[in-house]
Design a protein that fits this description.
The chain is rod-shaped. It folds into two domains: about 30 residues; about 80 residues. With about 120 residues, it is mainly α. The chain contains three helices and no strands. The longest helix is centred in the C-terminal third of the chain and has 52 residues. About 90% of the residues lie in helices and about 0% in strands. This is Late embryogenesis abundant protein. It comes from Stieleria varia.
Length: about 120
């Protein structure tokens, strides 16, 4: 839907103002702009999810440590190891979310670039 609206706006702008670029070049630019915005949204979403995951695991680890404050030293050592493991798992999950988001955003950008190139090729024929 965004692509359609963006393409329509580009066409209207071209019709009202005119420019040196062809209509198909304008459409290609619009496709690129739209896919860049979509990719950025995907990256932002994955970054936010990763940060939330990190924060949740850090909070869980801190809560575990807090509960063991008055325990014996051996219990505190065991709790510290478990808390470290929780933080490590959270960091791994967050890293995976970031990687997935980046890969998805890159795929969206690549697809948009392919579509834009195809539109420009129509202009060259």
């Amino acid at each position: 839907m965004k692509i359609l609206a963006t393409v329509t706006m580009a066409l209207l702008t071209f019709a009202m103002i005119g420019c040196d670029e062809s209509m198909l070049d304008e459409q290609a630019d619009s496709i690129r702009d739209t896919t860049q915005e979509q990719a950025e949204d995907i990256r932002d979403t994955s970054q936010n999810a990763a940060e939330a995951t990190r924060e949740a695991s850090q909070n869980a680890a801190e809560n575990l440590r807090d509960r063991a404050d008055n325990a014996s030293e051996s219990v505190q050592d065991a709790v510290e190891n478990k808390a470290d493991a929780i933080e490590s798992r959270g960091e791994s999950k967050a890293d995976a979310l970031e990687t997935q988001g980046e890969n998805k955003a890159d795929a969206v950008e690549d697809l948009g670039e392919e579509k834009a190139d195809a539109v420009e090729e129509l202009d060259d024929k």
